[in-house]
Design a protein that fits this description.
48% helix, single chain, alpha+beta, five-stranded mixed β-barrel, 14 strands, elongated, four-stranded antiparallel sheet, 18 helices, 15% strand, 574 residues
Length: 574
């Protein structure tokens, strides 16, 4: 008789359970080591557990634009604020509307709440405006000028008027005007000839009056206080000629209509200038923005100081006012007296766009973790009671099999804890009360997978099979049931995560994470351990405390084939 061919073992690797156990052991060691290397031995906590800062912002419409405060603009503002805060690496920050005009921003403890507070309320309306006149940031005496000098062919102050307004120094000192800031093109300067300034038609009486009013406003402007700097060009439109202050108050300007806006900036990032070692902000323009920027700088390059400068105005204050020597194109960089923090702040607001509305800070309150701590304590007590009941049930009903279930729960707990700790610095995940609830619910989901497998094994033993074949035959059917069950749980968690906002997403995320880990633990730990235990005499012999006693399970006797009796061929025997 020919020897039977050796085939592959059953799914699950009856002869090689050690490989799966080694794999999950390596994963646990790697995750635990990564947790300590990242200096994150505990999960990050949300605002309800760690405390933090709650900021209330009220939307303010510009005069004549009261209808701008609507649901669409409020929702857009919430999205931009969320992107800004997330860009700072703040975990578990909540941004949501309250009523028709208010936005609530909750920032957990342990983050730079002062920086985030500044970011969320900044409107970040950016405009590139040509400089018409520049002076020191303090009020200047009115210049003596003839009536003909006061007249101007346009809203821009006339050449004689502007010269007299700054007769001592048409361009302020470097520290007053630009503080050493400059804008350089990332592309090669355009060598095409630049157009010359041309004259304009004779200004009307209204234009002359507007020019005179603007001149008086410029002379009286005092940039020494933050309030005066913020009000200098408040309510102005991009097409208006305005007065504005340098952010530090050392200089003031008359600025022409905006030529390029922040929407023309495609991206911005903070970097270090390799030559000077100073922090700069690098900007990349969109296709249309690059054309506008090149056109504007071409015009400015042909002018004399200070008309060859353009101001980068952020929320009405001049961040920088560099001179233009040649036409620039698709990208530029803002350099000057930036620290790393201020450069990153500016790049962050430029990258995520301007808020559609202006916001006024109404209140800033500190949220304590006392209430959340009490709720967490109550939740952990409830979880401990639930876990204890599960353990009692497993021991009473499954006896020796309860050891495998408890070891599997322990492995699942280690994987969940380490992943939650690592996901904090990785993606900003923070553990809040709903997330804790999701982890507690996962105990039942994980235990349910063990029960499905154990019951399949018991069914095979009731059919009269011994333990080792029962373990392998039960696995395919149990595996299908476990996968379907976990798929439904994960699908529910994914839908809940997508359609909800705020803390409920923490519950959905934790539920989905633990569901995936349940599959990993059952496949790489529970099944291999069960295979190894089936080789032990305690389980294989059906010990009464093993949970697999054939007598207690009502097993059928093993089916044996009866010998076939051949019919007699001799008629006499019949």
């Amino acid at each position: 008789m020919a020897a039977p061919k050796k085939g592959r073992g059953p799914a699950g690797g009856q002869g090689r359970p050690g490989r799966a156990l080694a794999l999950i052991l390596i994963a646990m060691v790697a995750l635990t080591g990564g947790m300590f290397l990242a200096h994150q031995p505990t999960p990050r906590l949300g605002i309800d557990l760690a405390g933090g800062t709650s900021i209330t912002l009220e939307a303010k419409a510009e005069p004549g634009q009261e209808k701008a405060v609507n649901k669409t603009n409020m929702d857009t503002a919430v999205q931009i604020m969320e992107r800004r805060v997330n860009g700072l690496g703040v975990s578990e920050a909540e941004v949501q509307t309250q009523g028709e005009r208010n936005i609530i921003v909750n920032i957990p403890k342990g983050t730079n709440s002062a920086q985030a507070r500044k970011q969320v309320g900044t409107t970040a309306k950016l405009y590139f405006r040509p400089v018409l006149t520049a002076a020191q940031g303090t009020p200047t005496p009115a210049p003596s000028a003839s009536s003909s000098d006061k007249a101007s062919p346009s809203t821009k102050p006339s050449a004689s008027a502007s010269d007299k307004a700054s007769s001592s120094s048409t361009k302020p000192s470097a520290s007053a005007t630009t503080q050493g800031r400059a804008v350089t093109g990332a592309l090669k300067a355009d060598s095409s000839p630049t157009p010359k300034a041309s004259g304009s038609p004779t200004a009307s009486a209204e234009d002359q009056a507007a020019a005179a009013k603007l001149q008086k406003q410029f002379e009286a402007l005092d940039c020494s206080t933050k309030a005066s700097r913020s009000k200098a060009s408040k309510g102005a439109k991009p097409s208006d000629t305005v007065v504005a202050c340098e952010q530090d108050g050392t200089a003031k300007y008359v600025l022409g209509p905006a030529e390029v806006s922040g929407t023309d900036v495609d991206s911005a990032k903070a970097a270090i200038n390799q030559q000077t070692g100073q922090w700069i902000v690098q900007m990349e323009f969109t296709g249309g923005g690059a054309k506008k920027f090149q056109k504007t700088t071409s015009k400015l390059a042909a002018q004399q100081s200070p008309q060859n400068q353009f101001a980068i105005a952020l929320d009405g204050e001049v961040v920088s006012a560099p001179s233009v020597q040649a036409a620039l194109s698709a990208s530029a960089e803002i350099s000057g007296s930036f620290t790393q923090q201020s450069a990153e702040d500016l790049a962050n607001v430029l990258s995520y766009g301007a808020l559609p509305l202006s916001f006024q800070e109404q209140s800033v309150t500190t949220v304590t973790a006392a209430l959340g701590g009490e709720q967490l304590k109550a939740g952990l007590i409830a979880g401990a009671i639930g876990l204890a009941l599960v353990v009692i049930y497993l021991v009473a009903y499954y006896r020796g099999l309860a050891l495998i279930a408890l070891l599997s729960l322990l492995v699942s707990g280690i994987l969940t804890y380490t992943l939650m700790s690592l996901l904090g610095p990785a993606i900003g995940f923070a553990l809040n009360l709903p997330a804790v609830c999701g982890a507690i619910v996962a105990i039942g989901i994980t235990a349910d997978s063990f029960i499905v497998y154990f019951e399949r094994i018991r069914d095979e033993i009731r059919e009269g099979r011994t333990l080792r074949p029962a373990v392998e035959r039960a696995w395919p059917r149990a595996r299908r049931t476990i996968l379907v069950s976990d798929f439904v749980s994960f699908l529910a968690a994914a839908v809940l995560f997508v359609v909800t906002v705020g803390k409920v997403q923490g519950f959905a995320f934790t539920l989905g994470l633990t569901t995936l880990l349940d599959v990993v633990v059952v496949f790489l730990f529970t099944k291999p351990v069960m295979t190894l235990m089936a080789r032990k005499k305690f389980f294989a012999s059906g010990h009464p405390w093993s949970g697999l006693d054939p007598k207690r399970l009502g097993a059928k006797p093993p089916l044996r084939r009866s010998r076939r009796v051949n019919a007699p061929t001799d008629p006499k025997e019949a």
